[in-house]
Amino acid sequence: MEGRNTGPREQVVPEEEWGETLSCFEMSHKGTRVSVQIEEPDGSRVQFELEAKFELGLMGMSEEERGEQRRVRLVVHKHPGTKIETVEIEEPTRILQQDGAVVIETANGRRVLIQSYPS
After folding, report:
1. Is the pTM of this model over 0.90?
2. Contact 115/35 with Cβ under 8 angstroms?
3. What pLDDT, on a 0 to 100 scale, did the predictor assign at position 36?
4. CATH code matching the domain that covers 11-117, chosen among 2.70.180, 2.20.28, 1.20.1050, 2.20.25
5. Do residues 88 and 73 make contact, with C-beta atoms less than 8 angstroms apart?
């Protein structure tokens, strides 16, 4: 995939390749432990994995369109237990690839980092 580099390990994914990129990330990392970190426009960060005793396992990731609105849907399984969480990332404007990670930037200035960790 081609794209311009924005840093030592980040590569911008062309918009027409978003679906393929997310699908490839899902297939490569399905079932592995992931963390989801949201960086707000003011620089504050929220970690989706709120308790250290829980791990998030990647179940699915896809790009969707509803009318004229695009979103990225992330489905994770919270371990231990059986809770399934869905994260919907509204109005993505740019997707970047990193080593073992995908970064999604949104129209409201958020950056969502989905990082995969080896099992």
Report:
1. no
2. yes
3. 86
4. 2.70.180
5. yes
